Amino acid sequence: MEQQRDYLETLAAFKTPEDGGHSVVLLQPFDDLEKFKEFDENIKEVKDQLLSEFRSIGGGNITVATRRLLTYIMTDNVAQHYSWLGNNGKQMFCNLNL
To answer: In Å, how far from its chain's centre is CA 68?
Structure first.
């Protein structure tokens, strides 16, 4: 747990794109469900930075933006375990801290 806190503090110290720096909250999409859940549980420390990172992804409309964001944060290996409301035995995406 202490190692996670240190990692999140290091990430929080990086400049956001608005500050003229770059965000490194997500280096690549999550491919492991447990690692994704752990990240989501501890996201509070870097949430503003992550939102700035999301804003930089953009998209021409809500559908394109949503697809870009989802592929940015998780692979199909993780996404297959979620639906918005948790239908068909899946976990609820709407309850995530993201």
So the answer is: 12
- Strand blocks (E) in the chain: 82-83, 91-92
How high does pLDDT run on average in the chain? 82
Residues 31-62: tens digit of each pLDDT: 999 999 999 999 988 988 888 888 888 788 88
Containing structural domain, residue 29: 2-95
Give 75-81's long-range contacts (Cβ < 8 A, gap of 24+): 75/29, 75/30, 75/31, 77/31, 77/32, 77/33, 78/29, 78/30, 78/31, 78/32, 78/33, 78/36, 81/33
Total domains in the chain come to 1
CA 86 to chain centre: 18
pTM of the model: 0.71
